[in-house]
């Protein structure tokens, strides 16, 4: 017997969208002045491209670790997902994020492991 209720669609956990204004052409490397993608529960996203194509810049903007001048993050997250559980990032090598101080880089790594990060 079939149920009369509609099948529940998988709602994306996040609809990511970065949009650039006209003045940001020299810092936003994407054609069409926007980048958009959706991530469903259980999916992993792999940003792939040549060196200098903007993968790290895009990721840092989406994680809130860097602001690209003239670019607006219009991402929409599922409200049920806690802020600290929304995203993570694995770099190719042990790399420090240029826009953060050494302390902030270490603090970020400690927070990711749920370790205390306050100076003594």
Brief characterization of the structure:
The chain is of the alpha+beta class and 120 residues long.
CA gyration radius, whole angstroms: 18 Å
Major sheet? 4 strands, antiparallel
Secondary structure tally, helices:
2
Order of helices and strands: EEHEEH
Structure write-up:
With 120 residues, the protein is an alpha+beta fold. The protein contains 2 helices and 4 strands, in the order E-E-H-E-E-H. Strands 1, 2, 3 and 4 form a 4-stranded antiparallel beta sheet that branches. The chain is globular and about 45 Å long. The model is unreliable at 1-8 (pLDDT under 50).
Q: Can you give keywords for this protein?
A:
single chain; 120 residues; alpha+beta; 2 helices; disordered N terminus
Protein topology:
Layout: E1 14-20, E2 34-39, H1 55-62, E3 71-73, E4 76-77, H2 102-112
Antiparallel strand pairs: 1-2, 1-3, 1-4
